[in-house]
Amino acid sequence: MIEATELTKTFGATLAVDHLNLTIKPGEIFCLLGSNGAGKTTTINLFLNFIAPTSGVARIDGLDVVEHPLETKQRLAYIPEQVTLYRNLTGLENLRFFSRLAKAAADSDEELLAILAQAGLTADQARARISSYSKGMRQKVGIAITIAKGALALLLDEPTSGLDPKASNDFSTLLADLSGRGVAILMATHDLFRAKESGTSVGIMKHGRLVETLSTSELGHRDLEQIYLAHMKD
Amino acid sequence: MIWFLVGHEWRVLKASTIVRLVIAVFAIALVVASALGTARAEAERATIARFAVSVPHFQPAPGMIGDGATPSMRADFAANERGYLALLPPAPLSALAIGQGDVYPNYIKVTARSLDALVSGDQIEHPLAVASGQFDAAFVVLFLYPLLIFAVSFDLTATERDRGTLRMVLAQPVTLGEVVAGKMIVRVCKLLIPMLLITVGTAALFSPTGADFWPRAMLWVVAIVVYGAVWHGIALVVNARGFSAPANALVLAGIWLLFAVVGPSCVNLLIAIRYPMPSRVEAAVQARAATQDATVQGSRQLGQFLQDHPTSGNVGREGMRQFAMLQAERDRKVAERLQAVEATFNAQLEKQRRLASWLSVLSPTMIAQGVLLDVAGTSTERFDHFRAEAASFQRQWQSYFEPRVLDAATLTPAEFAAAPSFDFVEEPFTLTARRVAMPIIVMAIFAAVLIAIGFRSYRGYQL
User: Fold this and answer.
1) Which helix (H) or strand (E) covers residue B28, if one does?
2) Cα separations (Å) of A150 from A106, A147, A183, B77, B278?
3) What gap in Å lies between CA B211 and CA B190, rounded to an integer?
4) pTM for this prediction
């Protein structure tokens, strides 16, 4: 479970995240929408404990990320816009490295190749160097890392940005699969279409505040766009 | 976790062309330097061996009198003209550091009159080699090693941070401190292991010298480890500032230039201005000027004596004694004057050394240079020790021969064999160890402080 309670972050006089309250349950995919600078990435950085909150608490699986940084990282996975892995190593070697870092059970070539296959990479692709990978393939390694470590929470920062429609759709399928495994997913995105398609709920952030939370099942694509644009006009 | 990170970093660096190139250059430089050092030490040993065979034996030579069956030698000839060559054996680790070996002589001619080594006994070397220093293992350690530490460490985390890989890694249950420590350990080992193997290995295999070899080799290892730690510490502090990789490279290159090149040059300049020393030619001229009147006066008296006794046949034993007395008087006056010049020269040299010792704390290279040369046995300390032993031997030589010279005696082979001989006694290892302990501790403190600052600064590293 991903949870924020009155989570606040300021950078000097700038309020980046303003008293954010948020709960994402296992299996839920929460898509965080907002313009650039709205506070989406800062929120993810707070959950990753890459920056310390000014006030409030961010929790993963009930644990405060500041007080239990290693335990919470054991339980979460992170896929940024650009999954930047070790270029000189293969996909398999990269997965092994991150799996071992996360003390994951899967370690043999067979187990890791099977996980990469679940993420959509063939054995040949898995044995190629990352320097030859497309962005979509690297995202799949990111998904494989999530599966391998058995993460309970997944944080994604604009993961579909720059992906072609087919790759983006494949990625949504993988997210749905992870959701089916009970992973709580927080995805920051600009992609309204993908948010409606993949998310179970969406939140709109503006100037660091979560101004609206909606269930995607109650919305059409057009409705979401109109609500989003209405908030952006204010 | 650390060792897992070390293993990973080792694999990543192994695939890096730049790192492979750096290590290859380093290994080649070390092999060449060690080979040159070994060859030089061997040549030195051969020279000493040649002298050792030729000097102390009572062989037929000019100056001998008597028939072949009962040869004898004039005491003044044996004591002064022939004299004795006090020999300094090669230093325990001379293959690793030539040090002052290209400036100070490893042999001193001892006569009953004087110790002939101060201004005229320097080694004959190409002036350019003396000015620029020799290419030996110590040179590689002192100058190339820090540069290569920076070459492999300027980008500990900058590129991974800029690309985003570091965020991926730190999203796992691992701390930035562990990641950085893993990277540092690999970089330390990549350079340190080949260096220690090549330098100590070459010296041990091809040029082992003396019982102190292994204790000194251990000190050499400790000094290099600590010296390297200082430079790794500097690299860590600069990396922790959060600059880009090119900016880190630029800053580190500047620091290397400052500490390894500009700093020592400025210190040398400062010392030369504060305590100027005469050049070797000037020193020789000064010595000659100071002794000239005594030489001329003495020679005039001797000349007068010879005029008064135009043929050696009617001089007699008493005449020869008189002649020897005149000679001894002249030599004593010359030695006194020379001693005064030497005292001034040595006092200035001592002031220079004291100032250099204080100023060396400004640069790790200068501190380490003093330590490595001392440990190798090619520092001024060992040559001073040799000179002191030779001076003590000269007094023995003088007291053995002077009465015989004044008596205008001739020596039989048995008397010649009974003359004192010189065997260099190496300074106890513990003395060297005590001398280098403080500089090593100072470097270790520098390194510890820098590494602590580096890791502390990394706590605020912006991802």
Assistant:
1) helix B17-54
2) 10, 5, 9, 95, 78
3) 31
4) 0.84
Alpha-carbon distance of B407 to B164, in angstroms, equals 92
Beta bridge partner(s), residue A184: A153
The rounded mean pLDDT for chain B is: 83
Residue B443 Cα distances to B6, B141, B190, B365, B450, angstroms: 25, 15, 21, 10, 10
Q: Which ranges in B55-175 belong to alpha helices (H)?
A: 75-76, 127-132, 137-139, 145-153, 158-163, 165-170
* Rounded mean pLDDT, A29-38: 93
- Distance from the Cα of B225 to chain A's closest Cα (Å) equals 30
Determine the Cα–Cα distance for residues A91 and A115; give it in Å rounded to an integer. Answer: 11
Work out the end-to-end distance of chain A between its first and last CA atoms, rounded to an integer number of angstroms.
Answer: 32
Contact A101 B167 (CB under 8 A): no
Please indicate if any CB of chain B lies within 8 Å of the CB of A25: no
DSSP reduced 3-state for A3: strand
Residues of chain B above pLDDT 70, percent: 88
User: What is the reported pLDDT for B211?
Assistant: 73
Query: What is the C-alpha to C-alpha distance for residues A155 and A148, in angstroms, rounded to an integer?
Result: 15
pLDDT tens by residue, B239-252:
999 999 999 999 99
Element (H, E) at A185: strand A184-188
DSSP string, A147-174: HHHT-SEEEEESTTTT--HHHHHHHHHH
The SS3 call for residue A49 is coil
Q: Which residues contact B164 (CB under 8 A, 6 or more apart)?
A: A80, A82, A84
Q: Do B173 and A73 touch (CB under 8 A)?
A: yes
For residue A151, give the chain B residue with the closest CA. Answer: B172
Q: Cβ–Cβ of B173/A85 closer than 8 Å? A: no
The SS3 call for residue A18 is strand
Q: Give percent helix, percent strand, percent coil of chain B, each to the nearest 5.
A: 75, 5, 25
In this structure, of A48-52, A216-220, B261-265, B438-442, the range with the lowest mean pLDDT score is A216-220
Q: Are B138 and B366 in contact (CB under 8 A)?
A: no
Rg (CA), chain A: 17
Contact B173 A71 (CB under 8 A): yes
Question: Would you call A46 an interface residue with chain B, using a CB distance cutoff of 8 Å?
Answer: no
CA–CA separation, B381 and A61 (whole Å): 67
- The per-residue pLDDT for range A176-233, each reduced to its tens digit, is 999 999 999 999 999 898 899 889 999 999 999 999 999 988 888 888 888 988 888 8
Residues in B touching A97 (Cβ below 8 Å): 8
Which DSSP helix (H) or strand (E) runs through B37? Answer: helix B17-54
Note whether ipTM > 0.90 here. Answer: yes
As a whole number of angstroms, the distance between CA A162 and CA B421 comes to 88
H-helix or E-strand spanning residue A33? strand A29-33
Mean pLDDT computed over B221-230: 97
Asked if B79 and B434 count as a contact pair (C-beta separation under 8 A), the reply is no
Nearest-Cα residue of chain B relative to residue A89: B12
B64 pLDDT exceeds 60? no
Residue B122 scores a pLDDT above 50: no
Nearest by CB to B173, from A70, A82, A85: name it. Answer: A70
